[in-house]
User: Which sequence fits this backbone?
C-alpha cells in the first residue's frame, strides 16, 4: 500500500487543481517559506477526516477554503475546497475490493461537507473504518507537524498513554466501545420508559 496522488483544489493556497504524484519510498517537498509545503500536509490530514481547525492551523474549518489573493495576479475567494487522496491498494492492505482507492472530501463555504470513497458518497465513519487498520488516518500521528515533537516531549503521562494506544491500534476499538455504550444508554432509557408504562397500565 502506498499513497499515489494527492489532488488539491481550492484548498488553502492551492486555488487551481494541483496534483502531487508520489512514488513508493521517500518524497521531499521543498520550496520557499510560505509557498504551501505545510498546506500539502494539512490537505493530507484533512482528507482523512481531520475535524480540528486548530490542527489545520486555522481559526475555523472554513479557513481551509481558498480565501483569495490581492495584487496584480489577485484571485477571488472560492466557494469550496476539495482534496482527493488516491491510495494504491494492490496488496489488499485496505479492507475494500479495489486495487486503487480514492478518498475525496469536499467542503462548501455555505456550510456542509461530504466524503466519497471511489466516487460513492459515504460517512466520515466509513473513511475512518477504512483507514483504521492501515496505520494511516486522522489520529494515527503519522503526520508530525512543526512543534509536535515538543508537544510529545512535554505531554502528561495520560497524553503519552493516548499516543501509545493509538499507535497500537486500540483507537478503533475504543471508538466502537463508545458507540456501543451510547446504544446501551439509549436502551436503558427505553427500558425505564417501558417499566413506567407497565406501572401505569396495571
Ligand atoms: P514555511 O516553510 O514557512 O513553514 P510553508 O511552505 O510550509 O512555509 P504554508 O504554511 O504551507 O507554507 O503556507 C502558507 C501560505 O498559505 C500563506 O501564504 C498563506 O497566506 C496561505 N494560505 C493559507 N490558508 C489560505 C487560504 N485559505 N487561502 C489562501 N491562502 C492561504
Assistant:
Amino acid at each position: 500500500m502506498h499513497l499515489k496522488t494527492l489532488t488539491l483544489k481550492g484548498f488553502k493556497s492551492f486555488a487551481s487543481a494541483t496534483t502531487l504524484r508520489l512514488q513508493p519510498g521517500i518524497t521531499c517537498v521543498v520550496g520557499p517559506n510560505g509557498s504551501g509545503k505545510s498546506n500539502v500536509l494539512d490537505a493530507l490530514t484533512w482528507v482523512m477526516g481531520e475535524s480540528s481547525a486548530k490542527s489545520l492551523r486555522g481559526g475555523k474549518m472554513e479557513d481551509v477554503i481558498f480565501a483569495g489573493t490581492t495584487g496584480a495576479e489577485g484571485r477571488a475567494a472560492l466557494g469550496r475546497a476539495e482534496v482527493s487522496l488516491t491510495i494504491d491498494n494492490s496488496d489488499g492492505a485496505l479492507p475494500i475490493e479495489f486495487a486503487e482507492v480514492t478518498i475525496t472530501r469536499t467542503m462548501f463555504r455555505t456550510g456542509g461537507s461530504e466524503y466519497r470513497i471511489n466516487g460513492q458518497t459515504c460517512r466520515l465513519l466509513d473513511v475512518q473504518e477504512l483507514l483504521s487498520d492501515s496505520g494511516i488516518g486522522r489520529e494515527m500521528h503519522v503526520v508530525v507537524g512543526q512543534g509536535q515533537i515538543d508537544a510529545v516531549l512535554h505531554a502528561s503521562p495520560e497524553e503519552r498513554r493516548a499516543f501509545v494506544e493509538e499507535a497500537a491500534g486500540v483507537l478503533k476499538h475504543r471508538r466502537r466501545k463508545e458507540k456501543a455504550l451510547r446504544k446501551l444508554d439509549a436502551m436503558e432509557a427505553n427500558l425505564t420508559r417501558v417499566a413506567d408504562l407497565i406501572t401505569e397500565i396495571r
